[in-house]
Amino acid sequence: MQAAAIVAAYRAIRTARTPQGAVGWVVFLLSAPHFALPFYLVLGHSRFPGYVSARRSARSVVDALKKYGAEHGAARGGSETAEGRTIAAFEGMTDLPAVSGNSVRLLVDGDATFGAILDAIRSAESYVLAQYYILRDDRIGAEFRECLMAKAREGCTVRLLYDALGSHGLPQSYFEELKAAGVVVRNFHSIRQPRSRLQINFRNHRKIVIVDGAAGFVGGLNVGDEYMGRDPKFGPWRDTHLRIDGPVVTQLQLVFVEDWHWATGERLELNWQPRRQADDEDALIVATGPADEVEAGSLYFCNAINAAQTRLWIASPYFVPDIDIMRALELAVLRGVDVRLLIPDRRDHWLAWLAAFEFVGEIATSGVTVLRYGEGFMHQKVILVDDRFASVGTVNLDNRSCRLNFEVTALVFDERFAAEVAAMLEADFAKARPHGERVATLSRFTRRVAAPAARLFAPIL
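^ thats the sequence. predicted structure below, dont judge the formating
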């Protein structure tokens, strides 16, 4: 056991993403090998190598999308302006260009989101692609299942990809009914698959629906009644999703194709030529995860923060960031940017909620306005930069989203859309209270002991 711990410690030194992580693993492994080694085998991975090889197999699709994107180049591209350089950095993370000719519709909360998604699925003519982190066998879960089954019976090809960890409570009968109706169901990350058995710390946190390669949906809502505001524990559920039409749908579809190939080994024949839309909005899909060659999740946040000149408004259900993001936020305040962070007052994950008090306290001292949303639970993942662009997706402002989860977000470079997001967030701010008021209600033990202790788990929260 000691020899195995030494080998694991050496591997941690070589592969850990931060010096602090390497030191932590080495001390743990060498001082308590019997306890540490099993934890390291599950939690110590920093990359998802099998997915990297799966991504290379889709190279021909990526190259085709680059050519397609060149034909629909975003009007704001080019490196001669600060905005152009910001977009270029996002493009570098994805290896794809921002594209014009899109129409983006903001969907606020569950009724609007699932109303739009189910209507789009019902209108499908050729195929439906759906991918979720959490699926539940409840009221909205049953409605979603029945909608997929109905399209499959009509002759449409329907594919559903789910994460076994996020959907661990789903009964097998849910999948059996789907399969019996002709829906092709696959598990992205089965803990029963040999290649991923010891990689359960990685999650596919994406929420994607694509209809006929022409319409796409992405955002914060999973399929469950709590996302419809029906869970008395959370009360009203505040979340945001998007419907996207136009050339950028091909990029969202590529994210699904890569994930599907990882899970199945299949190459899909799909529509890669959606029509341009009259709204002509510029957009880009940024997909991040542990298969990235660089830490794209953290870079995504840092690039957005550094681009802000007048205002930076962020809504995130969790706030457990890395040091680079913390310093970027502090610098934005020093530049005179109006930096606001909206987080939930209620909690769904106790440890992450507790750890956030330490980070929020530090960032509030630097001048960031921190507001706690109080009307139910807030789960949206939204960034607004000036009046120039905004993003909506699945990426939380925490280490898990930046380093361990497969995530996806849509960036929209359009003043009209940014104004719509600003109005939405202003309405949310009106339902929030200052962070300091919440801190005053915490016990001395929570402030002095529990929150600092929870911060120790930040690398995996």
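The mean pLDDT is 84.
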